[in-house]
Predict the structure.
Amino acid sequence: MEDAREALLVLDGLTKAFGDFVAVRDVRLDIRESEFFTLVGPSGSGKTTMIRMLVGMEQPTSGEIRLNGRVLNQVPANRRPTCMVFQDLALFPHKSVGENIEFPLKIAGVAPRVRRERASALLRQLRLPVDYYDKGVNQCSGGERQRIALARALAFDPQILFFDEPLAALDFRLRKTLEKELKDIHRETGKTFVYITHSLEEAMVMSDRIGIMKNGGLVQIGTPHEIYNRPVNKFVAQFMGEVNTLEVEAAGAHAVREVQGEGTFEVRDMPEHFTRGFLIIRPEVMKLGPAAAGAANTVSGRLFNDYALGSRVQYQVRSAGGAQWLVERLQDDPFEGASDGEVTLGWRPEDSILVSE
Amino acid sequence: MSGRPAASERAAPTGVRRWWRRPGPLCAFPVSLFLLAGFAGPLVIVLAYSFMPPRTFSLRQAPTLENFASVISDSYYLSFFWSLFLATTAVLILFLVCYPIAYGMAKLFGRWANLVTALVALPLLISENIRLFGWVLVLLKNGILDGTLQQLFGVSVSGLLYTVPAIVLGLVYVYLPFMLFPLVIGISMVPESLKEAAADLGASRFEIFREVELPLSMPGIMIGGILSFILALGSLAESKILGGQTVIMIADDIESAFTFAQNWPKGSVLSVLLIALSGLIVVMLFRNIDLDRIIGRR
């Protein structure tokens, strides 16, 4: 897969400071041709500043942005062969749907008849009715407006298409539909997509690779599979969703001790020089009740509550030491146990992840 | 206004007596009375006088179109032309002068915008005539400007006062706030992200202005333009004080008819025609430019 050529977009020590506040700190990242790359981070992690530098609306304090080997730092937004779908979509309210989509073509000096054909083709590609051409953008629904914004960006024919959390404001079901549509569009067009979001779940659905940001720096870069199975620290693991996190210290070659006295647990892989850190166990790998019997690691406690999560049911167990544990099972395989009853939970050493920070 | 259906359901008022008790009409009553007596009343009287025989002072006479005929056959069209021409010129110059200032106030000056606002608004506290006489002193032969230039560079600019450009200067100077403040509001209504999106899609500074900023700030431009145009169209002091007798604007004619010539019906006809002209222009502008469409409300 990898060749000697430089990646399509290279961020080389990219840094942005506003006064004393460093919003983006020494980011090094390669984005490859035709990939769907997502930057994920909580609000304030610097991802918006980062994407604004990449499209040319913010000047880096130091470092380089190279597209096809050409340094882009000083190139203004309107001269860059990239474009962005904005968080608020930034559709022109005084222009019709068609005029919005045609906007980049009009600026490029394309003849009216040609750009109208192109706009109609894009409407079809994004599954919008072709008679929407003359409709006002404010008369369209949220999902339709998303598609119009995407069509307008595609009309620009960018080398890289950036997305600044465009789905954040939509309701859950529409967001799920549009996530898949976006991934389909990515396949159809073969373009390079760089997407930012605060939802790792959203990133997982769509991305080829994910970069996780925290406090202006990249914490981990990897495929969704890698991020899910091998988080580098507690932050990434917890960002993924609800997990059981135990603060532990080393207690032998393959064992760690929970610092509050919950017990000593067996682990399979111990990082080198590990002294103190966190043991992470996903709720869905936890066994509950009889299923936990014979597991290498067990904890006993009291079943406190259960929550229906749709396809799964989550159980909260409180152990004698006061810790809260989460266990998840498929909803068609629920745990048959009395509430407040004594239960045992357990997990296999290979199902836990040990991180230093 | 009637966004409170609950109130009407509760009280279920019928008939005029009940209608009066509702808070809306009750609150509006004093100002309605004031507007009827102070605004609509005089206009009706002026309209009535325009149909009275020339040089009469009674409204109890048979209506006639004599005044309209004499105004049309006379050379008043010249005054109308000058008023229209000077007002249009002033509005165009005002737009060019005010747009950059308004842009700065809306987007660039930050905290200093308040200072600029105060500086622009402060002269409004002083009588317009006094400010115009100030300009007379500046533009006068051997006045402040002429004298200073003679003293420093030996150049004389003595012919500035009592010219058409002096009147335009006066109009621009006096009506600047009426163009500026609506423009500030219009420009600040343009979302920054739309300009960024346009730039991102390849638009240059000028293309962003043409495609996004100008159309979206059109409500402010229209209001500023109409305000300053109507005010300049009916202006009197600028042409008298800075223009001398170079040109006669229509308000000048109206004043002469009412005072000097003691011909109220003629003055009324000229007033009615001026109001009709202003109204016609405003209606035409609003008909051709659909503000709701511009700002995307439909």
User: Anything to note?
Assistant: The first helix of chain B runs from residue 5 to 11. The radius of gyration of chain B is 24 Å. Chain B is about 75% helix and 0% strand. The interface with chain A takes residues 191, 193-194, 196-204, 207, 211-212, 215-216, 293-298 of chain B (CB under 8 Å).
